[in-house]
Amino acid sequence: QDSASPLMEQLIFFHDHALLILVMITVLVGYLMFMLFFNNYVNRFFLHGQLIEMIWTILPAIILLFIALPSLRLLYLLDEINEPSVTLKKIGHQWYWSYEYSDFNNIEFDSYMIPTNELSTDGFRLLDVDNRIVLPMNSQIRILVTAADVIHSWTIPALGVKVDGTPGRLNQTNFFINRPGLFYGQCSEICGANHS
């Protein structure tokens, strides 16, 4: 699915940025390897080249900075928790999720994956559930994730969200939905038979 949050857009931009640098490095190394086939070895016994050694030591360090600095910026953006409008607690079970809207009294439900034989013709196999979460757009949403039995991982790729649910531990993250839509996610941890 296409991006539906500013954080996912930043992740896509960083991916494209890193891929551009990798393509440039691959083209340069490929060109140098290709040119080796036509080398006449004029300087075959040339022993000292301090300038070129300094260049091929410093240049990769500079290139790594061009990857590391945007990556660190993005890590801090992903980890920042802003003032949430809605808090949603998720508890992973084998093999369903329990949801609680923490800001309201007694709003909690379980969400089970719809079995393939009960799926409607327009449903998505291994993705559709019987009870969907409804969240507002253009609002900061905080997610609290834990698990009751084994390690689970609550993931929605279109929102750039992936949080591990570990028994005995409460993890949190946040996201901002900037367009309406129906977004699908899956458990991203091998948690058992109905892992999907």
From TrEMBL:
Protein name per the record: Cytochrome c oxidase subunit 2
Catalytic activity: 4 Fe(II)-[cytochrome c] + O2 + 8 H(+)(in) = 4 Fe(III)-[cytochrome c] + 2 H2O + 4 H(+)(out)
Major subcellular location class: mitochondrion
SUBUNIT field: Component of the cytochrome c oxidase (complex IV, CIV), a multisubunit enzyme composed of a catalytic core of 3 subunits and several supernumerary subunits. The complex exists as a monomer or a dimer and forms supercomplexes (SCs) in the inner mitochondrial membrane with ubiquinol-cytochrome c oxidoreductase (cytochrome b-c1 complex, complex III, CIII).
Cofactor, free-text remark: Binds a copper A center.
Taxonomic placement: Eukaryota, Metazoa, Ecdysozoa, Arthropoda, Hexapoda
Topology with respect to the bilayer: Multi-pass membrane protein
Segments passing through the bilayer: 20-42, 54-78
Gene (UniProt): COII
Species assigned in the record: Drosophila kikkawai (Fruit fly)
